[in-house]
Specification:
Layout (H helix, E strand, L loop, with lengths): L1 E4 L5 E5 L2 E5 L21 E3 L5 H4 L2 H8 L2 E5 H9 L7 E4 L4 E4 L2 E7 L16 E7 L2 E5 L19 E5 L8 H10 L4 E5 L11 H10 L3 E3 L6 E3 L1
Parallel strand pairs: 3-4, 4-5, 5-6, 10-11, 11-12, 12-13
Antiparallel strand pairs: 1-2, 1-14, 2-3, 7-8, 8-9, 9-10
GO molecular function, one term: hydrolase activity
Keywords: Hydrolase
Protein name: Metal-dependent hydrolase
Length: about 230
């Protein structure tokens, strides 16, 4: 499985040719200025919550790709208001699992806040566990460290995509504990560097993860890695 990093928390999974995009925020991210949004054409878009830095490019990418958008019920209502057709929206809720052609996706708890860009309530923020053929991947979304993560240990997670920028989410130190909670030795960092409050020291982050015996991947924007 290939993962492409587009900056902030925006990643795309290529699962045997099926493309799944998470939290599309590209055109408003100065660090992602070299990424051509028009070239991104996923089959599915998953949203962890409705803050602008996770949904800014949702509508344009959905329109050009015809992707199906999946998210929590209240955020799904906002997605429909943007003009996404009903048959291209999947709403579900915490604890629910979608059975899709590429695998199963369970919606799990995230400790954060959630509102639309115009200030409306958008439901709970969430994360996702992707159960794929021979691989289990946890996308944490925006979250603080929480004991709820220990419930995920039973899923035998191969890779965890964890926020590491601090200020609005977990920082590096808490992400290391989160990796321990979910019993995962491979982490890809998300939600860092895009804005001054969440800039990190890459070398220091790598050193801390290495000392904890956890592999940390920090791909460049636009770079793809195999997981």
């Amino acid at each position: 499985m290939k993962v492409t990093y587009y900056g902030q928390s925006c990643v795309e999974f290529d699962i045997d040719g099926t493309k799944v995009l998470l939290d599309p925020f590209i055109s408003y991210n100065p660090l992602a200025k070299d990424i051509k949004v028009a070239d991104i054409k996923p089959d599915y878009i998953f949203l962890s919550h409705a803050h602008q830095d996770h949904v800014a490019d949702m509508y344009s990418i959905q329109q050009q790709s015809g992707a199906t958008v999946a998210t929590i019920v209240e955020t799904a209502a906002w997605v429909r208001k943007q003009g996404v057709p009903d048959d291209k929206v999947i709403e579900y809720n915490l604890g629910g699992t979608l059975d899709l052609p590429f695998g199963k996706v369970k919606m799990v708890f995230a400790a954060h806040s959630n509102s639309t860009v115009d200030g409306e309530y958008a439901g709970f923020p969430v994360g996702y566990v992707f159960f794929l053929k021979g691989k289990t991947v946890y996308f944490a979304g925006d979250t603080a460290l929480t004991m709820e993560m220990k419930l995920l240990e039973r899923h035998n997670i191969d890779w965890a995509l964890l926020p590491i920028g601090g200020h609005y989410t977990m920082d590096v130190d808490d992400a290391i504990i989160a990796a321990e909670f979910v019993n995962c030795k491979n982490v890809m960092g998300i939600h860092y560097d895009s804005f001054p409050p969440i800039k990190i020291n890459h070398e220091e982050a790598m050193k801390k993860f290495n000392e904890a015996d956890v592999y940390l991947a920090l791909p460049k924007i636009g770079e793809s890695i195999d997981i």
